[in-house]
Amino acid sequence: MSKTRMRPVFGDIPSCSLSHRLEERIVRIKAMKLELSRKTDKPEDFITYDDSDSDEEPLSVQNEILTTSYSFVDYVRNRELGYTNYSSVANDYGNRHILTHEMFKETPVNLPHMNKVFCSQWLSDRQVVFGTKCNKLMVYDVMTHKIDQIPSLLSKRDMMGSDPQPPQQCGIHSVQINPSRTLLATGARNTCDIAVYRLPTLDPVCVGENAHKDWVFDMCWLDDEFLVSGSRDTKMALWRITPDMLESKDEIPTHKHIQPISLKDCRGAQKVRAITFNKSYDEIAALSLNGYIHIWSAETFKQKLSRKLPSAQENVCLAVQDSGLYAIGCRSYTLLLDCRTLQAVKKVSSRYSGCGIRSASFQGDVLTVGTGLGMLMFYDLKAGKYLESSINSSRTVVLKASKGYVYPDEEYVDNINIKYVPAIYTHCYDASGTRLFTAGGPLPATLTGNYAGLWQ
Fold first, then answer.
1. Residues 6+ apart with CB under 8 A from 318
2. Which of 5, 127, 367, 419 would bridge 379 by S-S if both were Cys, CB 3.0 to 4.6 A apart?
3. What sign does the dihedral 376-388-346-276 (CA atoms) show?
4. Residue 52, pLDDT above cutoff 60
C-alpha cells in the first residue's frame, strides 16, 4: 500500500535489499497463477492472459524491488525527513486497512419524522447533506449529532400558482457537489425542477425550471458551471450556473430562475434512472429503467450510442471509476462495463439471494455496494473477489446496518414471518476514506421509515 525508495546509509545497497524478497515474490506469483488457472464450473465472462510464461523478471525490475520498501514505518520516517519525492501511499490504504481489520463501528443516526433517505454527500469533514423521500434536504453534524433542514426552493409556477397541478413532491433523489465544492445541486420543492445552493453557506442561488415534466432522478456536474439532469420523462437537460449568479449583494438571500440551455430526449430510454460523468473519456453515461445504458458526448451534448444490458431488472444505480470503468447495480449482481466498448467485463454476484444492489461507488480499486438487505459489500477489483478479512481469512468483509425506524413495524405480513432490514439507498465516504455514511429505509413502497448510520 505504501512504497518508499530506500537509499543506503552505509555501503552500496539499502537495508531492505535482501535476496529472499525476490524468492518470496516468485512464490507468490506462482501461487496466484495457479489460483487463476483453476477451472470453475461457471466460466468467467472476461479472461486475460499473461503475455509471457517466463518467471524471469528483467534485472531493472529486480533492482527496483530490492531498493523499495513497502513498510508503512519507512514511509512515515521518510515523510518526517521530508523525502516526499521518494515515497508514495495508495489513496485507499486507510479505507482498505480499516475494512480488512474489521475496525468500522456503526453509530446509528436518529432521523425523526422522515421517510427514506435517497441520496447523500459529505459537505466537509463534519457535515453530511442528504435528501429524503418526503422532500426534505437535511444537514447532519457528525460531531454534535445536530440535524438542520435547508428550505426547499420554489419555482415561478409554484410561487404564482400558475401550474394547474399542485407541485409534485415525491422525494429528493440526487445531491451533487461541483468539482471546486462551491455549489450544490439537488431537487427543488417541485420534484420536476432542480435547485442550486452556494457552499459552504447553503444560501440559495437559483432554480432550474421548465425542462422536465416528471421527477428528476439524477444529475451530475461536468465542471464548475455546467450541470446535467435526467428525468423519468426520458429527457436530459443541460444547465449553466454562471459566476454572475453568485454575486448577489442582497441582505436577504434570494434565488434566480433559469432555463436549460439545451433539452433533449434520451433516445431508446424509458425513464432515465441514473447518470454520471466519465471524466477520463469526457462522456456522460445514462442508465434507463428498460435496461439500456446511453452514452452522450460531454462536449457537444449529443447522444452517441445506446447498448442493451444483460439484465433489464432493477437497474437502479450507476458509478464510474477514475479509470473509466462503469458499475451498474442490478437485481442479483453488479455489472462491470468497459467504457470503451460497453462490453461486460464481469458480473459480480451479490452472494445473497434476493439481494438487489441499491447503491454503488468506487474508492480506489474497491467497489462498495449497498444492498436491499441492509448490507454493504466490498469488491476488490485487483484481486477479482470480495474483500477478505485479515482477522478471519475464510470470511469476507460485510457491514450489516442496524434496523432504523419502520412503520408499521409488523413482523407478520399475510401470516408470514418477515424480518425487516433497511435497504441501503445511498452511501458516501469522506475525503479521507476512513468514515462512511450510509442511509436508506424500507424497500417496500407501502412501508414508511428511515435508516442512517455513521461508520468510523
1. 273, 274, 275, 276, 285, 287, 293, 326, 327, 328, 329, 360
2. 367
3. positive
4. no
- Residue 264's SS3 state is strand
Amino acid at 311: S
Q: Which helix (H) or strand (E) holds 94?
A: helix 93-100
198-220 in b/e form (b: 16+ CB < 10 A) is bbeebebbbbbbbbbebbbbbbb
**How far is it, in rounded angstroms, from Cα 256 to Cα 156?**
10
Q: Is 50 exposed, middle or buried (0-12, 13-18, 19+ CB in 10 A)?
A: exposed
Q: How many CB atoms are located within 10 Å of the residue 168 CB? A: 16
Other CB atoms closer than 10 Å to residue 259's CB: what's the count?
A: 12
Task: Please give the domain boundaries of the chain with CATH numbers for all domains.
Answer: 2-90 (no CATH), 100-455 (2.130.10.10)
Q: To which residue does cell 432490514 refer?
A: 421
Share of the chain above pLDDT 90, in %: 51
Between CA 258 and CA 58 the distance in angstroms is 61
Burial status of residue 276 (CB atoms within 10 A of its CB: 0-12, 13-18, 19 or more): buried
Tens of pLDDT, residue by residue over 6-31, are 777 777 788 787 777 878 888 887 88
For 12-48, what is the HEC assignment? CCCCCCCHHHHHHHHHHHHHHHHHHHCCCCCCCCCCC
**Three-state secondary structure call for residue 154:** coil
Mean pLDDT for 219-228 is 96
pLDDT of res. 168: 57
Task: Give the type of residue at 40.
Answer: T
The per-residue b/e assignment along 423-446, b for 16 or more CB within 10 angstroms, e otherwise, is bbbbbbbbeebbbbbbbbbbbeee
Cell numbers standing for residue 189: 420543492
